[in-house]
Every structure is written in C-alpha cells, then in structure tokens.
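Troubleshooting log. The previous run stalled partway through. Resubmitting the same three chains, unchanged.
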Amino acid sequence: MALLQISGLTHYFGGLRAVYDFDLTLDQGELIGLIGPNGAGKTTVFNLITGIYRPSEGVIQLDGQPIIGLQPHRIAAQGVCRTFQTIRLFSDVSVLDNVKIAFYSQIQSTLLESLLRTSRSVQEDRAFTAEAMRLLELFGVDGYAHELARNLPYGEQRRVEIVRALATKPRLLLLDEPAAGMNPGEIDHLMDLIHYVRDQFKLTIFLIEHQMRLVMRICERIKVMDFGATIAEGTPDEVRNNPQVLKAYLGEEVEE
Amino acid sequence: MALTQKLKSHLASIPPLAYILGLLAAAVTERLAGEPVAVSVGLPSMPSLFGITLSQRSPVFLPAAVAYDLLMYLIPTYVVARLATPLVPRILERLAKSSLRPVYVLLVFALLLVWGGYHEYRILVLSLMGINVILAVSLNLVNGYMGEFSVGHAGFMGVGAYVASILTVWVFPRSLGHLMFPLALLAGGVVAALAGLLVAIPSFKIRGDYLAIITLAVNYIIKNGIENIEKIGGSRGFMGMAKLTNIPWAFVWSVLTLWLIRNFVLSPRGRAVVAIREDEIAAETMTVDTRYTKILGFCISSFFAGIAGGLFAHLLLYINPSTFSLLKSTEVLVMVYLGGMASISGSLLGAVTFTLLLELLRPLEVWKWVLIPLLLVGMLLRRHAGLMGFREFSFLVPREEAESHGSASD
Amino acid sequence: MAYFLQQFINAVQLGSIYALVALGYSMVYGVLRFINFAHGDIFMVGALLAYVGAGFLLRLANQIFLPGAVVFVGTMLFSMAGTTLIALLIEKVAYRPLRQYRLSVVITALGMGVLLEHLALVIVGPWRLSFPLLVANHVYRFGGVSISTIQLLIIFVSLALMILLEFLVQRTKQGMAMRAISYDRETLPLMGVSVNQIVSLTFAISSCLAAAGGLLYGHAYPIVEPYMGITVGWKSFISAVVGGIGSIRGAVLGGFILGFVEIGAGAVFPSRMRDLISFVVLMTVLLIRPTGIYGVARRQKV
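Second attempt completed without errors. Output:
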C-alpha cells in the first residue's frame, strides 16, 4: 500500500483556484520533488496535506486512511511532519526546548504527574532532553542547545528546524524550500543530509524547491505545478526537457 | 565609591539562610519588646508597617520611626545574621539536598507568622499579599507564557469568591468552618475554571486584540450577571462569611499555586503553552494539541483566580460585583507587568511589591491611583517586559537546570 | 406607533453619541492597530472641559452679548482643544515610546485611563456636576411623539461631524495617509509621510470627536461625573467592535446599533439588565464574526 495517496485535490481561496486536480502516490522510502514558479500552489499542497487548510475537493489518504478534516496535530502525530518556507522556529525559546516541544505526542505522564513533578514525569522529561540532545548532536548543533533560537545563524536555524521535525518521529517529511538562501557548497551538504536523513530515519521525503541543482540531482521523481495545475511529472531528465516546464519557467519564446 | 562597594560586598557575603534567621530573631524580639521600645523612641505605639504610613500622616514621627526600624529590625537582623554565618555551612551539610527548599519555605512561613500573626493589620496585608501572588502568577500563565491578552481576570476571581462564600454561608455547617474551607475554595476554583472555558473556546479561532475584547466582555458579563441575581444579593453584595482567611491559609495556598504553576510551566504541556505563544501553527504541525493546551492554560489560570477570590471573600467578609470589575483586573495586570512577563519570580515580586505599595500609599488616597499608572509607565519605559521579564530567581529553577547552565537564572 | 417613533428618536440620539466616541476607538485602531483603552476617559475629560468652558462663556455672555450659537461653538472648540492637548501629551509620553511592544502599550492605555479618572477626582473633587444648557430647550410635539431641540441638536451636530470626518478621510491628503497607514505602516515613511504626524493627527481628531460627544452627552443627560467615561466608553467600544474596529463606517453603524439595542432592551427587559444585554450582543457578534460587520479579515499567510 502506498504511504500517501492523493487524488483530485482541489482548493479554492474564495474565487481564486490555488490547487487543481492534484494527484500523487508516494511509496515508503521515495524522494519526490515539487517544483514550479512562485505562486504555483506548491506550499498550498503542503498546507492541505498537513491539515492547515481543508481542501475544497479531493481525497488524501495516509496508509489507506483518509486524513482530511483531522486536526493538524493529529496528522502530525500520525507521522506527517514538515518544515516551512520561512523559518518558523519558536524564537524566544531555547534550541533544546524547540526540539522538546515536538515530543508532545509522545508524552506518557499525566497532567497530574506533571503538576506534582513526580519522579516518573521528571524521568520522562530527562529522557526527552537526552533524545533531543542526541538529535541535535547528529546535526552538529548541540552546542547551541541553550541558546535562544532567534540568536542562531541562518544555516543553523534551518538545521534545527529539521531536527525539530525529526523529533516528531515522522514517516513522511515535507520539506518546504530547504535550500533557500544557501550557496552551492551548502546545497551539496544539504543533499547529503537529506539522503542521510532518509536512510537513517527510514523516511519518505517530499520536497518543494526552487534550486534546480538540488532537485535534479536528488529527486527520484518530480512533479511540476503552474497556476495550481500539474503540468508535468516524471524523472528529472524527463522533466528537464519538457517544453511545458520550460514555458512555465522561462516564458514563451518570442517569434523573431 | 570604595566604601559603598565594601559595604555591598560585605552584606552579600552573608548567606540568605543567615538573613532569614536574623529576620526571624528580629521578629521575635519585636513581638516581645516592640511596644515598649516604640514608646521609648517617641512613637505612640508599635508601628504596623515600619512606621512608613505613620510618618506620612505625621512627619514629626519620621526620626522616631527610623530609630525604631534600626533598633528593632536592622540591628538585630544584622547581628544575628553575622553570628549565624559560620553556622550556615554546617547546617547545610546536615540537610539533605532535596529538603533545602522546603526548609526555606518553612522558615519564611515561621517568619511571617511571628512577625504578623498577632497584629490585625499585618494579617490583613500579608493575606492580601498571598492572594495577589495567586492572582498574578495565574494571570501570567495566560498573558506571559501563553502570550494572550486576558484583561478580565477579576471575573474569575468573582466567580470563585461567590461560590466559596455561598458554600460556607449557606451550605456548610458553621462549626466546621476551617475544616470545610479548603473544600469551599476548591469548589470556587472549579467553577471558575469552567468559566474559563468561556474564554478558552473562543480562543481556538480568535486571537490577539479580539480575544482581549472577549475576555473583557466575559468579565463584564460575569459581573453584570451576578448583579442580576437577587438571591445572592445582586448589586448590594453578599456577606456573612466567617473570617477564615489568615496568614497560614494565604501562605499555604500561594506557595501551592507557585509550586504547581512552576511545575506546569516546566513540564512538556507547559512548554506547549509557550509554543502557542511563539507560533501556533508551527506548534500544531509539531504534534501539539493546541486546543487542549489552550483549555489547560485558560482553565488552570482561572481556577487559581477562583481560589484567590474565595480567600479574598473570607478576608474582607463582604463582596459585591463591583469589586470584580475592570479596575481589579487592571490591578492584577499591573502586578504581572511590573513583575515581569513569563516569570513566576516576577509575579511573586510584582504582587508583593504592589501590595506593599498600595498599603504604603494609602494615606495619599486618590493620589495613589495617579501615582501608580505613572510608576507603571515609567517602569515599562525602562524595561518593557517588566522587572523580571522571562527570567527567574535561581531558587525557582529546578536543580538539574540550575546545575547545567546558569544563564537564565538570576 | 407613536411609541415606536419616540423610541426610535431616543435610540438615534443615544446612538449618535456612541458613534462619535466609537469613531475615536476605530480611527486609532485603524492607524495603530491599538485599542486605546483610555479613550472613554478622554470622553469624560471632554465633558468636564465643556462644563468648564460653558461656565466661563456663560458668565461672559452675561456681560457682553453673545448669541447662543457662539457660546455653543465656543464651548465645543474649547473642549476640543483641551482634550486634544491632553490626548496628544499621553500619546507622546506614554504610547509612542512603547509602540513596538504591543502588550505593554495596551496596559499603559489602561493605566492612563485610571490616571485620568483619578486626576479628575483629585483636581475637581468627587463631582457630580449639572451641565448648563447652552441651547434653549423647546419641545415639539407631533401626535404623541415629542422631540426636543436638544435631541435635534445632538443628532444634527453628530451627523455634521461625521460628514466632516468622511470628507477629511476621503478627500484630503492627510486622510489618504491615514487610510494608507492602516494598510501598511512600514512603507509609508518611504513615501515621505511622517508616521508620527499622522498618528498625532489621528489622536487629535479622535479626541475632538470624543470632546464633542462629551458636550452633547452633557446636554442629553445633564449629570457629568468622573466615572462616566467607563459607562459610555465601554458602550462605544462595543459599538466600534461590533461595527468592525478600524472602519469608520463600522463605528458609526455600530454606534447606532448599540443605541437601538439599548433602547430596545430597556423597553423589554428591566433596566439593570441593559448593560448585560449589550455585552452579550458584543460576545455574540465577536463569536460569529470576530472582525465585526465592516471589519476586514486579515488573512495570515502560512
């Protein structure tokens, strides 16, 4: 069974059609990309999958179960996590706490135990801290653990965002423009990171990206959107040479 | 200046435990010899609050008041603290690490009882202080930690006040007064928590200024609602309560509130509350159940406001709806902002300072409320998040965190 | 029938005053995204200053001949000037430095309101003053319905001021700047507009309207006292929110809606429930349509 199954996904904002008839089948372990010009509706697709918007039409299934209409946190608890186009860390909170917050769905101790600070709840909190530190260490940002998130340099913030997303123990990771603001060297490093994450954590990855350097080299399959509709789909090579895609990005050729 | 520096460092070298013991000794001596000493320095009788109010009314007493404070407070405290300093390390060795904080709490309790327990006015002030601490800490949970703007806290206080009072006056047998008191307070708290849902549920979809307006509306609806219920006195008020609130009860409940809310804030669900303040959508996406967390935040906050209300009712023995209006909510807001946002220490500090300020400025009567807003603005202009904004005293930070890093504590 | 017409007139009168004060809330919110909780007390200051000004001008009128209209307009201008000065002072000293700190500035506003109330108490004493009538009060009766010159005065002066405001906002450069600020505060200085000046202008206008409201209120309900800012202020605030805070039309509509709700409720329910009903109306509107009737929903980009 496919991990994620989307069919006929359509969404309107008032009179504006943001997404039209979007289909996708994602199998466990795949690394898929979503590209398209600005305003094509890519982030909207992410927002629809994660439950932030409720689609006007269409079906989204996770492991065969429909997830439309569920609260975002329930969808997240079922293993769908994402990062954002603009970094949305909890700025006035320490890096460590940023990650620990993501353990919410894994809390075992009851409210009463937390209020009374029983040894069980303290132990659980220590376990969360240890796990969070382990993840931060994997990505080389454990040194910032007690620093406020907003004080970190941009690249480190991006990494913390990924760590935070991984803390939710996702099965499907949605990355919204992870390479934004990066130079080619950093992008290469990011590619390795994404592969590492996919293999180590047994994830399926669906990413939105503008940087072709990343998308073409890392994605197994690519979908292309423009004005809400899917205009192409296939392997990087197929998409690279697709005339529709070229037209969407570069515009029509002017007749001489 | 070298002299003040030397003085400061000398005073700082005396451990807090020694100071507490010193203060305790001073309180004991005052209890034993306060009245004769006061008369001998020229005061009419033992001053209730360090002679400040007395001096305001009749400035001729100022030198006598200063003399009294020196003889009765400053000198005994310093002397005993100095004597106790060498003993402190030995005492600390004997005590288990985990019982250190409870010992401090007990000592402070003893101090308050000795100093205030025999003096009507001091009982009133200390009880009010306890009540204000509960109000401030509970409001800070919503305004500081959750980042919402609740301006109607007094409404929940009113709910608790009325429910607790109705129970002790009409339902519980009089003879069981103190025994049933906690039950009455808890009942008041629970009903207040339910009232908190009136704000919590709208907060799912509404935030910011509009939610502030809703909290305001809820405050007024509660106030007006009570005014319209003739059975419990309407706008004439309700009375008949026994004076059940005293220093022990006020202290116990405020310590309990501080402890429970501090534990909550340090727990995963407490962190979720902060996440909502920072970025609600990101929090949802990171598996945080924002609806449940909001309900927790608002209802825990209003629960304790209800407890404070019950204590308040059994201290003043008369309540009416206009007590729980926007002015009261504003008072609590001032305490929270003065003390510092998202800081339990700050709310403690703000409540204590504000209560004292209110009492000390009492002779000024109406000018009091001209000065206080000015002080508030002045303070905000210098530190816009309040005195202890986002920071905590080290004794409130849990041991593990204090050991691993000292950056956030003071 | 006559009864309804009578109540209609009463409601319009009350609504006009609420609308005038509500406009102040709305304008300041529109420009600063900030609820000036002290506005109700500014209204009270306006009424107080009108009282003082009226007293002075009436005594003057005993010595030199002054037509009633001059006394009236003179009082209004005096009250407007004084109220504006106070409001601008508060804005400059307390609001402006804290403008970036949303929560701090709102609590400052609450504090300023308390300050004004008690300052009035201190300066004037615990007063309940009866307001002198600056206009000879004739009552016209048409078959069961009575309408007094005072009521007509209130309604017409309010309407005149609202029309003046509409002209100011829609047709002048300053008005355009005020509307622009409410859409985008950051870019405006780049166009050569001083945000501080526009903010001050907005506060000035809202204070003038509140002062006029105070003067008119004094004519309708001749007792003025220090806590009147609370009662009228909150009702006007509800009006502004119901109509859509930030919208001028909303404030006017909200004011009249609340006037009608209050008069209507007063006819059906016991008078002590009037306030309760107004607040319940507020809650209901907020729950159904938080941004009010004319409010623009601000969509947050995810």
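Takeaways: The mean pLDDT of chain C is 85. DSSP finds ten helices and four strands in chain C.
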